[in-house]
Write a structure and sequence with these properties.
With 372 residues, the protein is an alpha+beta fold. It has 15 helices and eleven strands. The strands form four sheets. A five-stranded antiparallel β-sheet has the order 5-6-7-3-8. A two-stranded antiparallel sheet has the order 1-2. It has a two-stranded parallel sheet with strand order 4-11.
Length: 372
């Protein structure tokens, strides 16, 4: 168990802190209404025998140290959020107090860790996707994630109950494409990882769109609907006179269009541009430096792709290119200068003449030095 794997020093700290949580000094003396107001609404407390007892600074410091130590344990640090750890440490303390028992350091830590590890599961997520025209396809596989048309059969395999019923839930998703994928972690961590993976999956499609269709980054907008701020809807503008007269309503649908991918497009991207390899990179934990640089670049391309502001798009696309060119952490200025100069000179964009390459590279490098 985790406690047994701690160093002798860590064990001594745990034992001392746990012991301090169950002494009279862990609880502040009886408080008046005025003193409670001064403590503030969020001051740490416990519930005991139906009453709220406020913790002393010493107890708060002990809980903070214990929370930090639990959060750093193997199996917890990469699978459970800090908020979940903090909540469970506080709850465990309260539960022990209510039993009128004082645990040992090992009992306290191992109980918390066992509970937290029980929240780490494999979750399936389904989010709506907009802005993609799948043409003649029912599904597109992107690594372990897939985009598919609505299918009620998938919902019939889910055990709905309580306030959730299959009909009402399906009605909310039946009119859009689905992005489906699995992640592992606690509730908080799994949700965060899915959102990040959804962003990278959309970024992969965005890159494919840029490869396949000129100007796709400006004329299309594929989005996983995971944030209300990014959901594409009609813009409504209401207008009226100073006295409330002559009202009018303007609805603006914007200039975006769905990004088309038929079977031939996907086959071409798989054959010529390693689509499946690119889509699978975010899943890998043992990436090479090059693969890590590619994943970071995909993230910045995805962020630029979903940003409606042209200036911010440019900045994020520049960051995307920098992540790709500066694979090594050493000599970043030289790597970026060379990467941009080579791309703008030899990649067919005709921005820089071949004869001007040396001077252009020196200029880019000098600009980077000024920025630094």
């Amino acid at each position: 168990m985790p406690f047994s794997e701690m160093t002798p020093k860590q064990k001594r700290i745990v034992e001392k802190d746990v012991e301090s949580l169950f002494t009279p000094k862990a609880i502040l003396p009886k408080q008046t209404l005025e003193s409670i107001r001064k403590l503030g609404f969020f001051h740490p407390s416990i519930k005991f025998q139906g009453r709220t007892r406020y913790l002393s600074e010493k107890a708060i410091a002990a809980l903070t140290r214990l929370t930090d130590m639990v959060g750093r344990l193997a199996g917890i640090s990469d699978s459970v959020s800090q908020n979940e750890v903090s909540w469970q440490v506080a709850k465990s303390h309260n539960d022990w107090v209510e039993t009128l028992l004082q645990p040992t350091g090992q009992e306290f830590i191992d109980g918390i860790v066992q509970t937290l590890l029980g929240t780490v599961k494999d979750y399936q997520f389904l989010a709506q996707l907009e802005g993609l025209d799948m043409k003649d396809q029912n599904a597109i596989q992107l690594g372990s994630y897939r985009i598919q048309r609505p299918d009620r059969a998938l919902f019939e395999a889910i055990k709905f109950g309580g306030n959730l019923d299959i009909d009402s839930v399906y009605d909310q998703f039946k009119d859009s494409l689905w992005l489906i994928g699995a992640v592992r972690g606690s509730n908080d961590v799994a949700s965060e990882r899915f959102e990040q993976r959804a962003t990278l999956t959309v970024g992969t499609l965005a890159i494919c769109g840029a490869v396949r269709y000129r100007g796709a980054i400006w004329r299309s907008r594929v989005r996983a609907i995971i944030s209300p701020l990014e959901h594409r809807k009609a813009i409504s503008i209401l207008r009226w006179g100073r006295e409330g007269d002559d009202p009018s309503l303007k609805r603006d649908w914007g200039g975006e269009q769905d990004l088309p991918f038929d079977a031939e497009s996907i086959a071409h991207l798989n054959r010529e541009y390693f689509l499946q390899r690119l889509a699978s990179l975010p899943e890998q934990t043992d990436r090479s430096e090059l693969e890590g640089a590619i994943v970071r670049s995909v993230y910045w391309f995805a962020d630029a792709y979903r940003d409606p502001n042209p200036t911010m798009q440019f900045i994020k696309l520049w960051s995307c290119a920098e992540c790709f060119f500066a694979i090594d952490k050493e000599g970043v200025t030289e790597l970026n200068a060379r990467g941009f100069a080579v791309t703008l000179t030899f990649a067919g964009f005709r921005v820089v003449d071949v004869k001007d390459y040396p001077e252009f590279k020196r200029r880019v490098k000098k600009l980077y030095e000024l920025r630094s």
